[in-house]
Amino acid sequence: MADRPRFSKTQLGQYLDRIAVPAEHRLYDVSGIADGDKFKYLSLLEKHHLIRIPFENLTLHYSWHRVIDVSPRHLFSKVVAHPSRGRGGYCMEVNTLFHTLLLSLGFDVSMAGARVYDPGRQRYGGFSHCVNIVTVAGVQYMVDVAFGANGPTRPVPMEPGHEGVHIEPASVRLVNEPIPQNLNQRSKVWIYQHRINEHADWVPMYCFVDLEFIPEDIRAMNLSPWKSPTSFFTQKIIVTRFTTAAEDISSPSPGVPNEAAVLDCGIDGALIVDHDKFKWRRNGVTVLERTFDSDDERLDYLRRYFGIELADEDADAIAGTAGQISR
């Protein structure tokens, strides 16, 4: 049996606190429950994770060390153990953390590597993303809690052509086919596609392989977004968090929704910070937009809309770098 880190029951409790799962809905071992209940719990965990834990690359800009450590112990400390900081991470961080949660709860789960699609070049890059593959009742589901606003919001069945809902009016699907860059056109991969409404074209987001990636693969793959000079993560700040209908756009400081708001409401949009721009989209419509005038204003929005609090020494570390806002 392969050895993987697992969280203790105490740590699982802290994790479920962090993603605002109410006590009466918590399960600590899914191995003996009915398949239908297992799938419902997986869906609940994914939704709570997307709403409460941001997809972000702040460590690459707002820290003196700029080190991305994808070990579950470090990720637990960064994201879970200090909830008042409101931190998340990018794909290799947050999907690894979620993988360890699912594994610790008794889910049948493995990780797979993914190649992100570049629409400008109309090509896939190398392996620089990862997803979780969870099997329930013999059906495999792709689960991804760290891709940003166009990432899946529910487990996606690995059934070619099956269409799933996203944030209305958008939808998502998986197709199983070769990509044009393959010399071997008999070699198929799973392609995750998104479209903004039923009249729009399907757009590939990424493709992933039907091959388990072990922790050593994830660590090696992490070097691409962390260190590559062509990685956009090193050039600008990206932060995304999914939102619910309970969040009030008129509030000057909406913060992160509480247990009841996350549990009772579906995902209806996403908050996005893209370098010096802030956007709140709900059901396909931009309802709030802002261009930041300074780093201080960006930090204020990170606190008010994402619940992210940075120490002064981390906030100061961006001075003179590509991520700094200069006016």
TrEMBL record:
One of the Pfam families matching this protein, by short name: Acetyltransf_2
Gene3D superfamilies tied to this protein: 3.30.2140.20
Coiled coil region boundaries: none
Name of this protein: Arylamine N-acetyltransferase
A molecular function (GO) term: acetyltransferase activity
Stated family: Belongs to the arylamine N-acetyltransferase family.
Family matches, as PANTHER family: ARYLAMINE N-ACETYLTRANSFERASE 4-RELATED (PTHR11786:SF0), N-HYDROXYARYLAMINE O-ACETYLTRANSFERASE (PTHR11786)
